[in-house]
Amino acid sequence: MKRIVRNRQYGLSWKGDYGPRILAKLEKHRQRVGTWNVDWNGGNHYEVYYENADTQTREAFAVSLIYRTCSCRLWDVCGVPCHHALVAITFEGKDPLDFIDDYFKKSTYMKAYEALLHPVRGLSYWEQRDLEELHPPPLRQAKGKRKTERIREPLEGRKKTKMSRIGRKMKCGICKQTGHNSRRCPLNPKEDCHNVGSKKRKTNPSKVAKQKAGGSSNHMVYTVCNPGKDNQLIVGRPVGKPRKYFNPRKFKEASSSQPRTEGNAPSQNPDSAIPTQ
C-alpha cells in the first residue's frame, strides 16, 4: 500500500513525458554523437559512420527510423535511441523524445499504479472457521552431505571470495621447479615403474621372519622399473607362500580308499586326506 502511493507521487512529480532516469540515459547517448557522420539513402534508412584517420579504419552502422532499429542493437534492447540513431534523428531535424519507446512514458507508468489497495480490519476481527490447519509438506532429507551453496549458472562466473587458479605457477615438490607437479616430475621413479603381478602390498616384518624361520618357501612377485632403458631394474619381493585350496574331489577319493572302522567318523579336516583313527 505504501509502495503504490510512493510510486504514484513519484510519477506525478515528473515534469515531462518521461522520467529523469530515461532523460539521463538519453543525454548520455547525446554526448557520444561527436564526430559521427551520416549518409542518407533517400528513404527511411541511414548509414552512420566514423572514420579514424590514425588507423585508417571506417566503422559504420545501419539505422532505420521507421522501424526504430540500429545494427548495434542498443536501441532495440533498451528502447532509448543510441548515439548512432541520434545522429540520424538530428539529420532529419526531429525531436529524439518522439523516438523513445512508449513503455517509458508517464501515462504508461501511471497506469501501473492507478489501482488502489483498500485497508482491512485487524486479525482479531477475522471470521473463525472450524477447518483443519494447513501445514507445509514434510521436508525430505536427501542422502549424503547437505549442500550449502546453490547451483550456479554456466555464465555466472566464480565466487569473488574464491581465488582463481588461472595465472598461478605450479611448483614441483621433488625438484622445486615450476611448470609441473611431483606426479609429472622426470625425477619421480614411480612414473617409469610397471608392476608385473598383483598390486603392491605392505609386508609385515614379523611374518617374514616367521616364514624364514620355518623354512617355508615364499611366493615372489617381481617389479620391472624403467623397462627398455639402460637403468632397467628388476625387484622381487615375497608375498607369502601360496594358499592351499580344499579340493572336495580328492578328499572324497582318499576317504573311499581307506577302510572305515565302526564308531569312528572320518575327519572333516580338508588338509588331511586320511581319516583319523
UniProtKB/TrEMBL annotation:
Start-end of Basic residues biased regions: 240-249
Which GO MF terms are attached to this record? Answer: zinc ion binding
Give a single Pfam family match: SWIM
* Keyword field: Metal-binding, Zinc, Zinc-finger
Key word Zinc present: yes
The UniProt record lists the SWIM-type domain at 46-93
**Stored InterPro entries:** Znf_PMZ, Znf_SWIM
List the PANTHER family hit by this protein, alphabetically.
POLYPROTEIN, PUTATIVE-RELATED, TRANSPOSASE, MUDR, PLANT, MULE TRANSPOSASE DOMAIN PROTEIN-RELATED
For this entry, the protein name equals Zinc finger, PMZ-type
Q: Which organism is it from?
A: Corchorus capsularis (Jute)
Species lineage: Eukaryota, Viridiplantae, Streptophyta, Embryophyta, Tracheophyta
